[in-house]
Amino acid sequence: MIIKQSYTELKNKLHYHNHRYYVLDDPEISDSDYDCLLRELEELERENPALVSSDSPTQRVGSSPASQFKKFSHSPRMLSLANAMNPEELRAFDLRCRRALGDLPALEYIVEPKLDGLAVSLQYTGGILHAGATRGDGDTGENITANLKSIRSIPISIMPEGHDACPENLTVRGEVIMLIDEFRRLNSRRIENDQEAFANPRNAAAGSVRQLDSRVTAERRLDAVFYGVHHDNDDQYETQSQRVKALNDYGFKVNAIRICSTIEEVITVCHDMEAQRDTYPFEIDGAVVKVNDLRLQARLGTLPRSPRWAIALKFKPRQETTVIKNITVQVGRTGALTPVAELEPVLISGVEVKRATLHNQDEISRKDIRIGDTVIVQRAGDVIPAVVRVLSDKRTGREQVFTMPVECPVCKAPVEALCDEAVMRCTNRSCPAIIKESIRHFAARNAMNIEGLGTKLINRLVDSGRVASIADLYMLSLADWQDVERMGDKSATNITAALERSKSAGLERLLFALGIRNIGRQSAGILTAHFKSLDALSRASHDELLAVHEIGPEAAECVREFFQNSTTINLLKGLQDAGVSIDPIQELFDNRFSGKTFVLTGTLQSSSREIAAEAIRRHGGRVANSVSKKTDYVVAGVSAGSKLTKARTLGIAILNEDDFFKLLG
Q1: Which of 21, 409, 454, 552 supports an S-S bond with 27, CB 3.0-4.6 Å?
Q2: Are 451 and 494 in contact, with CB atoms under 8 Å apart?
């Protein structure tokens, strides 16, 4: 009995701290303290397996993939929203509502951001998350409970605030989203690894939450915001705004709402929201307007697919029209072939766009994209622009159908797709394009930082046969460099010195520079801090890699495959023979930043943000992408934006560049 009581208390304590961190953004304990509590719970469950309950924090992520999603019946039905495209259509909506209610002089509305995510429904029984599903057709969706449990901002056990008890049966509606910072991080990692980038945060969220393996969903760092609640005592609410407050009291993350007394006030709020859309940490594509009085909602009723008492004002898209001049194919460092549309230059949100990714042949065929087509091009979340759709009525008959080549456009080797990928890859690991891209990545500023080794020089080295692998760079003597076409004596001396300096760049940089799929700059730093040496990392098992904070199953598998490959073994031997340090080295200077979280924003003048982040990690600190109450310092460079504003609002310590380097010592 005592053990069971201890288990319940420990479980509830973890739920409480999880809610403080992921929902309220106001943690009370450190990550290490939370991890200690979680390990204590895991140990208790190992010793007493009969105690394990479905709402345990240890049960958030499943251990094996599902074979398929089961169907789920919604009750009540999940409705969609009718759209308004301009203020006049909002006024017409208001007029319809007032007339249907007996020509009321005015109605009170609430206005909230329209999240660009995936609609979901959660069912709680006795305060425990019982099931969760996608909207589907409104009546039937897909049961994705395991994936939704992996989203930390979704409570798996409700602890109501200001309520005596949670209703026995509770249904909650909301949106699964991906924050813009996380979206950029995910796409940056995918692009680095020659994987297809997600078109926008909504696609990333939808694709992530519908993974059959919940571990992949957990790795994607999704979020969830809620706006609707139904339970046995629904009649206790009088307004929609009270429902939103109840959601917040039950521990769910909600959006800030505005209450408006007239439709003109609604239009003003919507206009302000659209003007400020880039300040939100997530993508919004409109504003949702709802009659606030629930009794009036009931009188207005619903249509088959949408309520009469709510409407969504759609914001103008970040899109423009242009023409595809040509389609070219790029070969990346992992051999991935990516079709790229060469465009007539066009301005989108103040940025000139000349190229857009076409992802793969399936995407080209699905959208029927041809050379010469007039197309709609979109930027979303500051990623590579994408072609949204073809304006087929603009076709002249001179457009050309494009198909991906069956052989590499560079080395003419056959191309193939792995069983689980739509991406075609060159099968020749000695392909000059793969070698060039691998060297370019290896020499980059945030990798080994080999100054002077630019694209043109890399092309000459590979095309002339002087270099066939990364290790060959270190085998060239000063005389060899002087013999390279258009290479002067001073340039040869400088690049020889840069290569010599790079030999002691450190394990973190080397690990990133090696170009392991799914291992970006931040992941390289995390792995370095954990394993301390390349030898220890290369021998790590899949489970040992998964145990590292922020390393998911895809990344773990890629690391294992990389170090088991014979090409990798030969490359590392070649680098070691050339004098590149791959032995255990003391990467951690001291622990002065232990337990501290930094956010870097703006442009640093005397250093890059990558170098600053590396220095923070070497001193035991953590670098985060977004500002929260958990942030200890924000380092603000030139042109710092919304992150600096949020830091000031939260009262977080702000360091300019000089302050930061003084603190760094």
Answers
A1: 21
A2: yes
- CA dist 494 and 502 (Å) reads 12
d(CA 373, CA 375): 6
Q: Which positions ≥6 away from 274 have C-beta within 8 Å?
A: 287, 315, 316
Residue labelled with tokens 């442009």: 603
Please list, residue by residue across 409-418, b when 16 or more beta carbons sit within 10 angstroms of its beta carbon and e when fewer do. Answer: ebbeeebebe
What would the mean pLDDT of 150-178 be, rounded to a whole number? 81
**E strand or H helix that includes residue 42:** helix 31-47
Q: Name the 3-class secondary structure at 460.
A: helix
Give the whole-angstrom CA distance, residue 417 versus residue 635. Answer: 43
Whether a cis peptide bond, with omega within 30° of 0, leads into 281 is no
Please give the Cα distance from 430 to 255 (Å, whole number).
52
pLDDT tens figures, 330-359: 998 888 899 999 999 988 766 688 999 898
Going from the C-alpha of 422 to that of each of 159, 308, 332, 389, 419, the distances in angstroms are 44, 42, 15, 20, 8
Q: Is the pLDDT of residue 271 over 70?
A: yes
Cβ atoms of 488 and 496 within 8 Å: the answer is: no
Domains and CATH numbers, the chain: 2-59 (1.10.287.610), 83-314 (3.30.470.30), 319-401 (2.40.50.140), 432-502 (1.10.150.20), 507-577 (1.10.150.20), 597-664 (3.40.50.10190)
Report pLDDT for 6.
Answer: 75
Locate 525 and state its tokens: 């730093």
**Local confidence band at 193 (pLDDT 50, 70, 90 cut-offs):** low
The two tokens of residue 70 are 């089961």
pLDDT the model gives residue 587: 46
- Tell me phi and psi for residue 125, to 5 degrees: -125, 120
**339 bridge partner residues:** 329
E strands along 543-642, which residues? 597-601, 622-624, 633-636
Q: Which token pair is 150?
A: 């992996």
| Angstrom distance (rounded) from CA 532 to CA 460 | 36
Here the tokens at position 357 are 């990714």
Predicted model pTM? 0.59
| Eight-state DSSP code of residue 344 | E
DSSP 411: T
pLDDT given at position 276: 86
Catalytically active residues are: 114
Q: What are phi and psi of 576, to 5 degrees?
A: -65, -40
- In 138-293, which ranges are continuous DSSP H helix? 145-149, 180-192, 201-209, 214-219, 240-249, 263-275
Question: What three-state secondary structure class fits 168?
Answer: coil
Q: Are strands 83-84 and 258-260 parallel, antiparallel or unpaired?
A: unpaired
* pLDDT, tens digit, 9 for 90 and up, residues 544-598: 998 887 788 888 998 999 999 888 899 999 998 999 987 544 444 567 888 889 9
CB 25 within 8 A of CB 56: no
